[in-house]
Amino acid sequence: MKHEWDIIIAGGGSAGLAAALTSARGGARTLLIERQTKLGGMGTNALVHTFCGLFHPDTNQPWAWLNPGIPQEIGEAMMTETQQSEPDLMGRVYVLRQHPSLFASIADDLCAVETQLTRLSGSEWASLSQVANGWQVEVLSRGLTQSHCSKAVIDTTGDATGARWLSPSLWTMAPPEKLYRPAYVCTFTKVTGEHGEGWRLALGALIVKGIRSKALPEATTGAAFRDSTFTEELFMTIDLEAGQGQWDPFDPNKRAELEATGRFTAISLWRYLREHHADFKNCPPPQFPAQAGIRETARYVGDEILTGEDLATNRRFKNEIALAGWPMEKRENARGPKFRYFDQPKPAGIPAGCLRNRQYPGLFFAGRCLSADHEALASVRVMGTCMATGQAAAKMALAF
């Protein structure tokens, strides 16, 4: 039995959520397929706790939304839920602190009212093929396979999954030693005290002392703590080398090693801080994410390829469908980011050709797997920009 839809969206992260809402609101019978049990992608399952890319990049001016529509709607909903009146100014960028549980709840609420939208939770996209009237998608759920057909498909998996089924020429990926390092994020609760810059510096010195005494693993070197919007709750982020030159995000054994390393590192740090830092004395074990935060895997080769130079020079396009405003945040090792800022504090454009390939009509792609080079991806992979490109891909699919 084949189920018929107007638009099928694979991947329920930031881009997929925005695409699904845009498609359903446009009147299309929409199917959203998500392998996890929560929508929101890295922002819920990997506990990525800031919305980056939502705001105009000129921090000398009052903050302003960059892309209207779904990105602004979700940003405003998060501000209401967390009782924030404005984003945080962090150096040369504006960011909005978000809470993963609230993001999942906001996604549920937004989707529930869309009668044209059907969600398949805990379901794996199993195949993609062209058929007479468009595309056929196979979905695996709890051991059972379903067939779904539609005139258009939007790939927001972050892994260019559709491209890897269709043709080697349709996707590309950086070599292992260049791939942006994955992050492991967990939540620490019941952490008392004030957590200002002095507190962070002292905490960093304590962690270095623990590493030198062999009480902590080397991976804790770059541990960064950030306050949640709720009292006595902190998010801890560690970038992991993940084998560096041997890292393969599609190797399930490598992924298992990465997850185990993240948990070991987090537990080691928790035990050490409970013993050596008064603010962590009553902290229970950290809450682990459903998955590590993967920053880069495969991406599509579209009609156009957005480059780092395009962004750095604030290039604009006649056919642009969204704006990028986040600097290129390169994390090719676990020693922290290297930022490349745009030449001017202005946004750059993202052209429509980055979301499609004319050889595959009716197939669109958005989010982390859109058509961009390795450097540009360091900017456009953030959640705010992913929402904007997901929204744009759905508008293109509606017009197809």
Structure description:
- α1 (14-25) runs parallel beside α10 (383-399) and α3 (70-82) packs across α4 (100-112).
- The protein starts with a strand and ends with a helix.
- It folds into two domains: 2-176 and 296-399, FAD/NAD(P)-binding domain, CATH 3.50.50.60; 183-280, no CATH class.
- Helix content is 30%, strand content 24%.
- The chain is globular, with a radius of gyration of 21 Å.
- The chain has helices at residues 14-25, 42-45, 70-82, 100-112, 161-166, 197-212, 252-276, 308-312, 374-380, 383-399, and strands at residues 2-10, 30-34, 50-51, 88-90, 93-97, 117-121, 124-131, 134-141, 144-155, 171-172, 183-189, 224-227, 233-239, 299-300, 320-324, 328-330, 338-340, 348-351, 363-365.
- The protein has 400 residues and is of the alpha+beta class.
- The model has no long low-confidence stretch (mean pLDDT 97).
- It is built from ten helices and 19 strands.
- β12 and β13 (233-239) form a beta hairpin.
